[in-house]
Amino acid sequence: MTVFCFGLLLMIVLFIRKTPGAILLSIVITTILAIVVNSLAVIDPKTWGVVVPRVPDSIVSTPDFGLVGQFDLFGGFVTAGALTATIVLFTLVLSGFFDAMGTIIGVADEAGLVDTRGRVPRLGRILTVDGVAGMVGGSVSASANTVFVESAAGVGEGRAPAWPAW
User: Cα separation of 103 and 36, whole Å?
Assistant: First the structure.
């Protein structure tokens, strides 16, 4: 908890001081601190939660492709029943769609890509890519491949500051 609080405080301070890359910099520094704390102190691994910070064995490695294609397309319908599985599927698709729409519009606005009527150009293509990426990610048993709101932080970091026009 202390490492998290330090990281959050560092992120806020760097962001307020308008340090370029404040969010990424604080994540890297906090990760290094967590690895150091975990290696020096005697801490029960359960207190870290799901992921225990440690120095990786190698910086670059090949991914494990053992789960590619290991899914059952209609297993949920058989196990849970057609109505329940349809409701769950509809809920996931609906929430994914609105999450993607909000993120796309927010990031496009941050990047200055929204037109004068508040619309994102070529939105259909963006949603198509998001949908195909989600299907491909699911078919290879990977985590969700979709747009993430964290992209706005990267767009914000890449923009030039708004200088006074005097």
Answer: 35
